[in-house]
Structure formats: structure tokens, C-alpha cells
Amino acid sequence: MSSFTPTPHILDTSILSDVARGDANLIGFLQGFDQAGQALVIPTLAAAGALRDSRGLPDAQALLVGLAAFERATVAPLDGIHQVAKLADVMAITGLDIYDAHVAAIADVAICPILTIDAVKWKGPARALEQPLHIVEIVDPD
Questions:
Q1: What tens digit of pLDDT does each residue of 11-36 get?
Q2: CA distances from 94 to 73, 97, 109, 123, 131 (A)
Q3: Architecture of 9-137 per CATH?
């Protein structure tokens, strides 16, 4: 039995928004990650941004609840004033909105890659912090 544990991937708002909209291909892709033992982190503020983007869609919340129920998924809340201060710093330095700034703050502290479908959005912010963020883009082959 291997003791290797893959580095978790932080899901950004673009990923969570597409899950909330019911993108079956993306959900299947993430299920494959989970089944392969790949840990996924769902920042609570990014989930809030995804739900804001999908207002009016009847299954949006249920789809995110389903994602959070994956065996290797962890929901990452904002916990305490120190984390709030880190979030505020990341927002000021990167110019990201509060939703993706939460993603960046977690990735910066945990030194984990960010999984996105919109790498262009991360180009500047990824280099703005003291240690560059690592961005992994899922590209739709269509």
C-alpha cells in the first residue's frame, strides 16, 4: 500500500459555478479525481460566489452539496480574524473579488494548486503574491 497523498487542488469560483449549473462533464471529471484519491478543497466564499452566479437555478445548491459529499472533498470555511486579515491582504494585493480571493488565500497558505476553467483571470493575481500561485486549467476539448 502506497503512502503517497496527492496535493489537494483548490476549486475556484469558475469551477464551482459550472458545477452549480450542472455541467455533467465537469462533475464527472471531478468524480474521477475523487475516485483516484485526489483531494479537492471547496472554499466557502467561492461556493457563495458560485451560488450567486447561479441564482434561480433550482438544483445549484444541491449540486454543490453533492460535490462537498465527495469522499476526498473538504469544505474550507473562513475561520477567525487571522484568516479574515489574510483574505483582506490577498484582496488588496491581487485585486481579486472576495470569492476568488478566498481561493487564493487558501492556495497561498497551503501551497496548493488552484483548479480553474478560466486561467486568464488568474494570470496577474497568480504573480502578485510573494510566492506565485500555481494554476491548473481544465480545458474543454470541444
A1: 999 999 999 999 999 999 999 999 99
A2: 26, 9, 15, 10, 12
A3: 3-Layer(aba) Sandwich (3.40)
